Structure to design on (127 residues):
């Protein structure tokens, strides 16, 4: 069965998979539906989280990865609305790749406001 997970810096040396911390365990969310994974990713972006790529994998591949990394995995059935936790980790195991062409005089507050507005419009379109 094919599932969808959220990856950061996909297909780079600095790739990271999104997990939710439940107690002392990291849990990888495996979405049955690409639309549900996209919706969850947009909700993360609205919380100022880095943009994630939605990638398809066979469920067995994710289960093997989780076992080797001492993670757990949870299948999110199609149509299930999952809301991200209100808090994010301050320190991740991966670093956000920033484009080298970003000019130092660019106002990050203007960018984040316009990006946030665009994300809000996309989220409203999903409802």
């Amino acid at each position: 069965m094919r599932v969808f997970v959220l990856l950061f810096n996909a297909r780079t040396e600095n790739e990271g998979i999104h997990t939710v911390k439940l107690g002392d365990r990291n849990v990888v969310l495996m979405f049955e539906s690409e639309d549900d994974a996209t919706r969850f990713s947009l909700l993360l972006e609205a919380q100022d989280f880095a943009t994630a790529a939605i990638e398809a994998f066979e469920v067995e591949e994710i289960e093997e990865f989780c076992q080797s990394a001492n993670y757990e995995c949870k299948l999110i059935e199609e149509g299930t609305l999952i809301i991200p936790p209100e808090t994010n980790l301050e320190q991740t195991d991966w670093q956000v790749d920033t484009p080298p062409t970003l000019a130092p005089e660019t106002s990050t507050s203007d960018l984040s406001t316009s990006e946030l507005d665009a994300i809000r419009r996309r989220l409203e379109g999903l409802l």
In short: The chain has a mean pLDDT of 82.
